[in-house]
Design brief:
Length: 153
Amino acid sequence: MILEAVTLITTANAAIGAVKELIQNGRDLCDAGDHLATYFDTKAKIQEKANKHGYKSDLEAFMALEKLKQQEAELKEMMIYSGRGGMWDDWLQFQVEQKRQRVAAEERAARVKRERRRKIREWMLAGVIVVTTLAGIGIIIGVIWLAKNRGLT
């Protein structure tokens, strides 16, 4: 578990380092898209792990999140000074929209799962009804047959 946390933090550090290097070499922030995607994917995993208490201690989770805050502040500076005007605000708005879409997708998936379970329950109930009905009919036919063959009629 600790190794996973260290690996995630190392991955985030490497991604941010690559972005910084590209900017220092005169490249545009847009050229660092892959590295930024890696960073934010890793950031989401670290935050999820911290929220689920996946770290050995609260201090370890806090320090991992603090490191992310520092890196995000550096990224903000890069977007403000090396990117186009309003890029940071656009990025924040984009994040809000993406989160909204992820939540909506999760809700749709949960709804589909509930619907699938409901249909399975309906089919199981129908199966039980059919089997019970056939068993009842079989018992009635058996009683009638016994009554005829044993001379009870």
